[in-house]
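User: My collaborator sent over this chain with a note saying "see what the structure looks like." That's all I know about it. Can you take a look?
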Amino acid sequence: MTFKNKVVIVTGGANGIGKAIARAYAQEGAHVVLADADETNGKDVVAAIQEKEGDAIFIKTDVRKVESIETLIGQTVERFGRIDILINNAGVSKFKPFFELSVEEFDDVINTNLRSVFLCSQAAAKKMRGNGGAIVNLASTRAFMSEPNTESYAASKGGIYALTHALALTLQEEKITVNAISPGWIETEEYESLRAVDHTQHPSKRVGKPSDVARACLFLTNPLNDFINGENIIIDGGMTRKMMYEH
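Assistant: Without extra context I'll predict from the sequence alone. Here is the result:
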């Protein structure tokens, strides 16, 4: 097992994509640290992992706050002695009409989605130095294409894309790879309730699942794939390659 006894932090791991990522690493034998502000769901996920997949702990974390991130990193190292992999998955999506969006609301999305990637990466990389490691940042296809009234979210995800290749160059001497994943439509709740057209509009003929992203994380953090660095993998069933003229 490639990830046996590896120490993996997954931010935003209490729900959706983060939950699938945490479970995937646990199934591969990793020690998983689930970091999230949602204590109830976070502890439920950890309990399920411990029952079915393997080893996991929950650390309540607000990725908008420096001191909370420092606690996360400190408790992880205290428990396991090191950090091997960081998955920056935490994020919020708040879509609001442009002319009604306040500075405070804009800042909250930026701080949660983008600034947290910088802060968590910096804190974790300090512990990876000398041993190497891997960081994966969850961006979005909305970094490259948009709908109206998505300014704060698009800006945060575009920033993650740029921050990823900057970090990859900065951390190359520390043998820490940094890559991004940009998901498209990943259904995290009622997959069976989706309409046929939801699936058929995708070139891959289905809407994405959290497990699609989880498998990509395993791929990018596999030490055998350390030649992939500073890259962004789009996982969207081919939608960003589709010419969508109205007929």
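A starting point for your reply to your collaborator: The beta strands are 7-11, 31-36, 55-60, 85-88, 133-138, 176-183, 232-235.
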